[in-house]
Amino acid sequence: MTDTTSRAASPTLDEVAVLAGVSRATVSRVVNDSPKVSPEARQAVLSAVAQLRYVPNRMARSLVTRRTDTVALVLNEPNTQVFSDPFFASIVRGVSATLADTDLNLVLLTAQDEREQEKIGRYARQGHVDGVILMSVHSDDPLPDILEEAGIPLVLCGRPFDDRAVAYVDADNRGGAREAAAYLAASGRRRIATITGPLDMIAGVDRLAGYQAGLAAAGQEVRADLLAEGDFTEVGGARAMAALLERAPDLDAVFVASDPMAVGALRALREAGRRVPEDVAVVGFDDAAVAERCDPPLTTVAQPLTDMTPLLTELLLRQIEGVGEQAESRVCRTHLVRRASA
Amino acid sequence: MTDTTSRAASPTLDEVAVLAGVSRATVSRVVNDSPKVSPEARQAVLSAVAQLRYVPNRMARSLVTRRTDTVALVLNEPNTQVFSDPFFASIVRGVSATLADTDLNLVLLTAQDEREQEKIGRYARQGHVDGVILMSVHSDDPLPDILEEAGIPLVLCGRPFDDRAVAYVDADNRGGAREAAAYLAASGRRRIATITGPLDMIAGVDRLAGYQAGLAAAGQEVRADLLAEGDFTEVGGARAMAALLERAPDLDAVFVASDPMAVGALRALREAGRRVPEDVAVVGFDDAAVAERCDPPLTTVAQPLTDMTPLLTELLLRQIEGVGEQAESRVCRTHLVRRASA
DNA sequence: CGGGGGCGTGAGAACGCTCTCACGGCCGTG
DNA sequence: CACGGCCGTGAGAGCGTTCTCACGCCCCCG
User: Which of A127, A164, A241, B111 is placed for a possible disulfide with A268 were both Cys, Cβ 3.0 to 4.6 Å?
Assistant: First the structure.
């Protein structure tokens, strides 16, 4: 009776075994509920487990099983503003919800700079996780290479820049943007500008390409002065809009590559005294919650997030289970949500 | 030469040892850079490590050291909207930056419901992390109890409801709110309303108490019809503001317990045709980035985030290192940032 | 020239778990 | 009544580290 407060010192499998009057192996079987245990033995073990508040040591278990039952969702984003982007929140929430039904744990890892990216690479290579979902991939990210080389199951959220054989899930950014541009052209707009995402991200590139394709299909010229690069943030969107207005005061529409940027653009337009949609029509991308409640409500290209997040985890799990499986990818359709801004 | 593509099968310590022509122990010493190794041996080991691309297996290491060199930051938030609150993003970023200089890894864990909270509790008890920083604690959260009982080092971001002996870091919510209310009273406002945070969170409770104290100190009555409960989101703030306007059309000021809510309140006021600050003065709380760029720019109570995040990690590290240390806590001063809204 | 004291090294026992294997006991069948 | 098979169980060998010891070696001092 020397210690009661100190030294929690988690009980081990054999302590449970001794208390239950069985062998370590039997306790292990009960804990991993193997069917090959007699009801009496199982009962004895269970009450011993309860009495000692036994929790299996994951490190010991992982050491032999080579599984951690943990997957990582990596937010690879230097721009801190973007961090509170509702798109991230939706993905995180969706993946987390999908995984909640399994016995897998989800951890979020964030990297603001290359040093932190390498730290994450190390973390993964050391065997902390069974697989990785990688978001917000920039063109110069080292992480995909590191993980691939280490043979860690990997799914990208957004298609990779090069045509590497890696699994990914993406929205049809090009198609969605094309539809948005075509829609603006069809509604009579003739000087359709665009605020792009960062062009070192594939979503930025693809949405720009879609915009250009949409204009071309409508027989409109793609003018360089109608293009401004944003960074997916509200502030960036406002700044780009202001630049656009100065450079091309005659624009009558703008396709903005994300909703947070579109909100910023809306603000810049208001400050410049332009009416939306009368003077300038605005179409966003994402269909974030904010699109519904901004002024005016935003016409926007909806990303099929409810399809994408289950797919993301499904593809990862399949890679973790199946050893020699082929990397499989999926592109999800978008659709235009018409509201008041265009 | 049977396999070259397949089976990465990470090399182990003894494979390195064999290649370097030394013992396992020596390799271990080099890897953990112990000083007691001859330069030649060290060199041999290092090149063997490089050649085999050896990475130590964390599970095996943790099994014996009982350390994981990982800490968790838990976002305990059922309300998905709040998830993209800039306050969270700031804390995450701050803690992450502080930890970047150490060899500790940071993982983010999110819980949307009780089931996920228990999953996180299990995760921690299984020995995945050396310590936990817990954010966004609601009054009925089971996690603090679970972690405390399991003896896992824990720091709360925000003081606990009961006076339990747990380390925490908090802003002086009460003092900040009192200053805000006093400021509004001093500038001649006579019907000062408030939009509170969720009252199952200590920040919500404390900011309300501060508001009441500020009014009382100014000799003003605390009217029940001037109080509306929000949920720290923009939408919630707008809704609460609308309710307030309906209930007490004569209000001439409002203290809003968070900046996102204040943005919503601003919108509701605009829609109701009230001018800010002429008709209604508005003061927020947080000094989030959005406070600077909303219309009009928001007078708000600044939280000392740059003090709080290093403190958070420091207190946790001290608990992880020092075995028998007393739980130590800190409250950081706020200050009022005057802009145009009040 | 002999003995003590570092210093670098290696052998081997943990750490807590899983998993293979072999072994008794019971059943059903020949 | 003997025998093969199955089922529940336990003994023991790992999994890849760290860490404690003990052991040579060389240097310095007496």
Answer: A241
The nucleotide closest to B65 (CA, C1' atoms) = D18
Q: What is the mean pLDDT of each run of 10 residues along chain B (342 residues)?
A: 47 93 93 88 94 95 94 88 83 93 94 91 95 92 91 94 91 98 97 97 97 97 96 94 97 97 96 96 96 93 95 94 77 97 94
Q: A14 beta carbon < 7 A from strand C?
A: yes
CB of B273 nearer than 7 A to strand C: no
* Secondary structure of chain A in HEC code, one letter for each residue: CCCCCCCCCCCCHHHHHHHHCCCHHHHHHHHCCCCCCCHHHHHHHHHHHHHHCCCCCHHHHHHHHCCCCEEEEEEECCCCHHHHCHHHHHHHHHHHHHHHCCCCEEEEEEECCHHHHHHHHHHHHCCCCCEEEEECCECCCCHHHHHHHCCCCEEEECCCCCCCCCEEEEECHHHHHHHHHHHHHHCCCCCEEEEECCCCEHHHHHHHHHHHHHHHHCCCCCCHHHEEECCCCHHHHHHHHHHHHHHCCCCCEEEECCHHHHHHHHHHHHHCCCCCCCCCEEEEEECCHHHHHCCCCCEEEECCHHHHHHHHHHHHHHHHHCCCCCCCCEEECCEEECCCCC
Query: Which chain A residue's Cα is nearest to B62?
Result: A59
pLDDT in tens, A123-144: 999 999 999 999 988 888 899 9
Which chain A positions have a beta carbon within 8 Å of B79's beta carbon? Answer: none
Structural domains present in chain A: 13-56 (1.10.260.40), 70-170+306-331 (3.40.50.2300), 173-302 (3.40.50.2300)
